[in-house]
From TrEMBL, chains A, B:
Protein name (record): Proline--tRNA ligase
Record-linked InterPro entries: aa-tRNA-synt_IIb, aa-tRNA-synth_II, aa-tRNA-synth_II/BPL/LPL, Anticodon-bd, Anticodon-bd_dom_sf, Pro-tRNA-ligase_IIa_arc-type, Pro-tRNA_ligase_II_C, Pro-tRNA_synth_II
Primary gene name: proS
E.C. number: 6.1.1.15
Residues of the Aminoacyl-transfer RNA synthetases class-II family profile domain: 39-294
First-listed, main subcellular location of the protein, grouped into a coarse class: cytoplasm
Domain of life where this protein originates: Bacteria
GO process terms (BP): prolyl-tRNA aminoacylation
Pfam families cross-referenced by the UniProt entry: HGTP_anticodon (PF03129), ProRS-C_1 (PF09180), tRNA-synt_2b (PF00587)
Taxonomic source organism: Flavipsychrobacter stenotrophus
Length: 492, 492
């Protein structure tokens, strides 16, 4: 297979697929809408997961694991939830196969029909709140701060690798609290954890906001989100945190005795991010040569490639320099590899590590080494520098820091350049079509108007930014009065 | 709920359930045969997973992720495999629910029937080898060394928490090799990884062996295993590693070009351990007061409990000592907690941490502290010692090491005491009934005899130990000649 990628200019969508497939992140599978996460993609996910997990634990959460299957009747217990989730999902109806009496392999055994069908979890609120009923009796059992790392399934008709797949990996936090305010505080605290992770680790600037009623999670009283801008100007929701009120506690009858010995329903939150974040990473930073990965998450941060001559002494010298450098970098927890495989040429290696998004490439060339020089290339800007051997390790360390912040700043500048403030419908449509990006505009606050705008423009309200400045204005569609601007965009 | 446990003497099986439920490891779920892994149980699994993962990576493996669902037809492709796995499994037949027109919640939408049913993976050989076909063309693509951490589902009729559940968590390694010998070497290498993990981390002595044809994995040419003895003398298979020959390569047509440009089928292995290991840990080490966890895997290794008097200066002094000790221990990566919650009394805390299996308990008592003394209790032997304050940190560190090796030695002695060598059928049955434990005996090597022994005694051949001494003898059942002893036991 050729490693040449479609360019973003030619076909942004195909460019994305090319990167994911040829960059070794994922592959299609024989199961409709499901993907195979390949080693390079999975390693990226491991680094994301480990850091998020560290932050969840640092904020007092514990992990647990709940069943994959949800009894069908559970989905109906929370009225809004069933509307949102009980539709496109995988249904287990039987528990046995048998040999086909006509000899055609195996068939479903009609005698092994389940009394009640099981749904493969699309999200776990129902089964978890059913369990919390047994775990919560008193205020002493609260707060209950639990997270689960799991696979979930939502039967999607149109799928995209990482961005929208039938099965995906995610984490889902599910917490229970004694008071409304404590639950709201938890919701926004976890939104802050997500935002900080996106910005500090993924180098991805995000807008924190709250969803309109239309876009709320099914069963939530408020859905908070972080929204990021991709290189084509579209929005990608990178994480959500839901304040669930007492909806699930009431649906599953989860009450607790407070300090005054009064019974009350428990307050709830849930929050999640998924392997979709890998799609966001790719779309936000990569270029026509391949992946560009932020050093903090890159599975491999530094690759060292030798260019030998025919002289054994020089070869030994190069190998020695590489060994020393690796030891020094590893002491500082840098993920580094020395690729001296002589089945492939340096040029092939350069292209391969560019495609895979390795942040720093160090070339130990026989001729340079004689002059104590080394070539260091950074993946983000493709800049190459000749470095004195004695400053190499130091330079590499601060280059990793530079790349991380440069990637964030570049993405931030891109977002600022593509953030448009408009005041009329005509301008709104023209901006969407000609400029792409996010639009800050007035909206009259009704679901009807929101729906109409979506229908006419394919743009949706991504969020009402938190700490939004109040400002009097007129709705771009209806001209009705508005008190604040909201963010519109076309979205993934 | 009372925290008092059934004793092992009273009812070993109930004792096990009590420990798992009251020790906070797992809970039953509303889905038949599926369990909820509670935070304490999941933390234990995380420590096991992280260490195994480190060892898999150290031996050159990478993680990846394959779909949860397997098209039904895939299971039929490998003849032996379908016999073993295509029977009791969860079958997805539909992908949508709809509102019940009669108002009773949601029902399965009959229009949303899948053309081909999907099986929730009971193991992933088939979907993985279907994928490997695309990934392997040449000897340069080999070896392919991949592991997956995942949930799997096998529809079990009789379930036990951790030991046998419909859904469980596990890892499954799936490797592809150019030669038969390399695949066999991989199979035994991973068996060694499992055995070392069981012994060094779980403090669980294991016998490495190979399964008889009857007990082989469905589709394997050889199944290697590690077998451990529980406190009731029964065997528990703690891990398996399979040499799959070219069976899956032929079933999924995975061929490669070798260095001489000839085509050949690829050689395969697979190997796995699961959350069943948590059941093994409990059954091997715990006592009538609760869990006894090996320090290397215990989520909490040391707990510090203060016993204050009414004097503020003494309270401050105790808190200060605890803070210093925690800082010192944490620098050495000890997982330590200071429990100075004054809603519960020290006696309650002691029982709780005993139940949870915390290896070391340090009591900072107001009166002792005046004499610079501290009480240190070890969970495994329940021994309490008065320690000079200035040697406390050092003592704690080597106590953790002592407990780890003491637990292993105790389990090893128990196994040796319950390993019986018998030569006649009468002795065999008598030993099984009166003594319990493992039996080393001669067997004539046929499946028929093995089946007959199982039928008559409920004991199975656990394995033919690796590096078994050859010894002439007569089969305990048939009297036919035998060349080596094998290990019989009743098993979980
Ligand atoms: Zn520099
Ligand atoms: Zn000592």
């Amino acid at each position: 297979m050729s490693k040449t990628l479609t360019t973003r200019q030619e076909d942004y969508s195909q460019w994305y697929n090319d990167i994911v497939l040829k960059g070794g992140l994922a592959d299609y599978s024989p199961v409709k809408g499901c993907m195979v996460i390949k080693p390079h993609g999975y390693a990226l996910w491991e680094h994301m997961r480990d850091e998020l997990d560290r932050q969840f634990k640092a904020t007092g959460h514990q992990n647990a694991y709940f069943p994959l299957f949800i009894p069908k009747s559970f989905l109906s217990k929370e009225a809004a939830h069933v509307e949102g989730f009980a539709k496109e999902c995988a249904v287990v109806t039987h528990y046995r196969l048998k040999n086909d009496p006509n000899g055609g392999g195996v068939i479903v055994d009609p005698d092994a029909k389940l009394e009640e069908e099981l749904i493969v979890r699309p999200t776990s609120e129902t089964i978890i709140w059913n369990t919390y009923k047994d775990w919560i009796q008193s205020y002493r059992d609260l707060p209950l701060l639990i997270n689960q790392w799991a696979n979930v399934v939502r039967w999607e008709m149109r799928t995209r690798l990482f961005l929208r797949t039938t099965e995906f990996l995610w984490q889902e936090g599910h917490t229970a609290h004694a008071t409304k305010q404590e639950a709201i505080d938890e919701t926004t605290k976890m939104l802050d954890v997500y935002a900080a992770f996106a910005e500090d680790y993924m180098a991805l600037p995000v807008i924190k906001g709250v969803k309109t009623a239309n876009e709320r999670f099914a069963g939530a009283e408020d859905t908070y989100c972080i929204e990021a801008m991709m290189q084509d100007g579209k929005a990608l929701q990178a994480g959500t945190s839901h304040f669930l009120g007492q909806n699930f506690a009431k649906a599953f009858d989860v009450q607790f005795r407070d300090k005054e010995n009064k019974q009350d329903y428990v307050w709830a939150t849930s929050w999640g991010v998924s392997t979709r974040l890998i799609g966001a990473l790719v779309m936000a930073h990569s270029d026509d040569e391949g992946l560009v990965l932020p050093p903090k998450l890159a599975p491999l941060q530094v690759v060292i490639v030798p260019i030998y001559n025919k002289d054994a002494a020089t070869t030994a010298k190069i190998d020695g320099i590489a060994a020393d450098l690796m030891a020094t970098l590893r002491k500082q927890n840098v993920r580094v590899k020395y690729d001296n495989d002589d089945n492939t040429r340096p040029g092939w290696k350069f292209a391969e590590y560019e495609l895979k998004g390795v942040p720093v490439r160090i070339v130990l060339g026989a001729r340079d080494i004689e002059n104590n020089l080394v070539e260091v290339a950074r993946r983000d800007t493709k800049e190459k520098t000749s470095i004195q051997l004695d400053t190499l390790a130091d330079h590499t360390m601060h280059l990793l820091t530079d790349i991380q912040s440069n990637m964030f700043n570049k993405a931030l500048k891109f977002r600022e350049d593509n953030m448009h403030t408009v005041d009329t419908w005509e301008e709104f449509i023209k901006t969407l079509d000609e400029k792409s990006g996010f639009i800050s505009a007035h909206w009259d606050g009704t679901s009807e108007t929101e729906d109409k705008i979506k229908e006419l423009s394919k743009a949706t309200i991504r969020c009402i930014p938190l700490n939004n400045a109040l400002e009097e204005g007129k709705c771009i569609l209806t001209g009705n009065p508005s008190t604040q601007r909201v963010i519109f965009a076309r979205a993934y």
